[in-house]
Design a protein that fits this description.
- With 350 residues, the chain is α/β, with parallel strands linked by helices.
- 21% of the residues lie in helices and 21% in strands.
- Helix 3 (169-174) links the parallel strand 9 and strand 10.
- It contains 9 helices and 13 strands.
- It has 3 domains: 36-98, OB fold (Dihydrolipoamide Acetyltransferase, E2P) (Beta Barrel); 108-258, Rossmann fold (3-Layer(aba) Sandwich), CATH 3.40.50; 272-340, no CATH class.
- The longest helix has 14 residues, at 139-152.
- The chain has a 6-stranded mixed beta sheet with strand order 10-9-8-11-13-12. A 5-stranded mixed barrel has the order 1-2-3-5-4.
- The protein has helices spanning 3-7, 139-152, 169-174, 192-198, 213-220, 272-277, 280-286, 306-311, 317-330, and strands spanning 36-44, 47-52, 59-64, 78-83, 93-98, 104-107, 117-121, 125-131, 155-161, 182-184, 202-206, 245-248, 255-258.
- It is globular.
- Residues 7-16 have a biased composition (Basic and acidic residues).
Length: 350
């Protein structure tokens, strides 16, 4: 065809071959009515270990079905399996659905990272494990975990370890006005009270490395065999749990989900309003602030009503400082190393 002929063509003369994404579906997706329900116990390199019907004696290895795409599947999820669910060696079932989650623990790498990571799903409570010494307790990390627990619909439980090395009185005083259950443990004692509080429930354990979390898990689930490590000379523990793992309590009455030791716990996915709601002693006063108040205090918000809560003795100043550290970090405002506690960017004593 001549160059002049090309010019005479209009759009009705052009035929465009549709891409693969525009082809009409030739059949409906299968309903998988014969799928079996299972609980995800752990994830390793694209393979999910699941317990059929929540029975730890019926373990099945599964892969994510192609139709699932990149749908996240995490420890604690209840999923539907099809294919070979015999659990025999070298067999794989397929995950075709993730059921609706009743709770989700999320975090980000730091307070400005938009990428949200799901740590665990469907846990009833979050056990925040904090050492009273070696390493020193970080209230900033505790507060971050409390915020994430409230936002994800988990009940928080504060577990203080190594009470044989330090008195818990000062740390307990910081949270005395909150409706926060607390368990105190010693290295040389059986954690009987903690065991009672987690019986019949799905409990996710979280904490910095070196606080004794894996030691606790080994006491609660004797055959867990979770590695334990010593604390270094700078007061930091080594990461000994590398993947989240759901473990059945003896007798099958409850689950412990041991999560990897964390160096950071970002809250970029939490809105400033939800941050304030996670500090109930300030939530009511925040409603009295001006509409554009960021609750960060001087110099940004000199007329913030939250200061009156502390001035009137309703809440300790340390709690307000912790809230404002989170709000400043969430806003991307540079702060001192202590103000970055828990984000993984810069850390220091709270």
């Amino acid at each position: 065809m001549s160059r002049r002929g090309w010019r005479n063509l209009d759009e009705s003369d052009v035929r465009v071959r549709p891409g693969k994404g525009t082809r009409p579906r030739s059949k409906l997706r299968p309903s998988h009515d014969d799928a079996e329900a299972a609980m995800v116990l752990t994830v390793d390199r694209g393979r999910w270990t699941c317990a059929l019907g929540g029975d730890p004696e019926r373990e099945v290895t599964a892969m994510r079905a192609r139709e699932m795409g990149r749908t996240p599947v995490v420890v604690g999820d209840w999923v539907d399996l099809v294919g070979d669910t015999s659990g025999k060696t070298d067999t794989l079932a397929r995950i075709v659905r993730v059921t609706e989650r009743k709770s989700v623990l999320r975090r980000t790498a730091d307070d400005t990272d938009p990428f949200e990571r799901i740590v665990v799903a469907n846990a009833d409570q979050l056990v925040i494990v904090t050492a009273l010494a070696d390493p020193e307790p970080r209230t900033g990390f505790i507060d971050r975990c409390l915020v994430a627990a409230y936002a994800g619909h988990l009940e928080p439980l504060l577990c203080l370890t190594k009470a044989d090395l330090a008195d818990p009185k000062e740390l307990l005083a910081a949270y005395a006005d909150l409706d926060l259950p607390v368990v105190v443990t010693r290295h040389d004692e059986d954690p009987a009270e903690l065991r009672e509080r987690i019986t019949g429930r799905v409990s996710a354990f979280i904490g910095h490395s070196g606080v004794g979390k894996s030691t606790l898990v080994n006491k609660l689930v004797p055959d867990a065999n979770r590695r334990t490590g010593a604390v270094s000379g700078v007061g930091k523990g080594r990461h000994v749990s590398t993947t989240a793992l759901a473990l059945p309590l003896p007798g099958g009455d409850g689950w412990v989900i041991d999560t990897p030791g964390v160096r950071s716990f970002g809250l970029a996915h939490i809105t400033p309003d939800d941050l304030v709601l996670a500090f109930p002693e300030f939530a009511e006063a925040a409603e009295e602030c001006q509409v554009n108040c960021g609750h960060r205090g001087d110099p940004e918000d000199p007329d913030c009503a939250l200061d009156h809560v502390v001035a009137e003795g309703v809440a300790p100043s340390g709690r307000l400082e912790s809230l404002r550290r989170l709000l400043r970090s969430r806003a991307g405002v540079e702060d001192t190393p202590s103000d970055q506690d828990g984000t993984g960017r810069r850390q220091g004593p709270s």
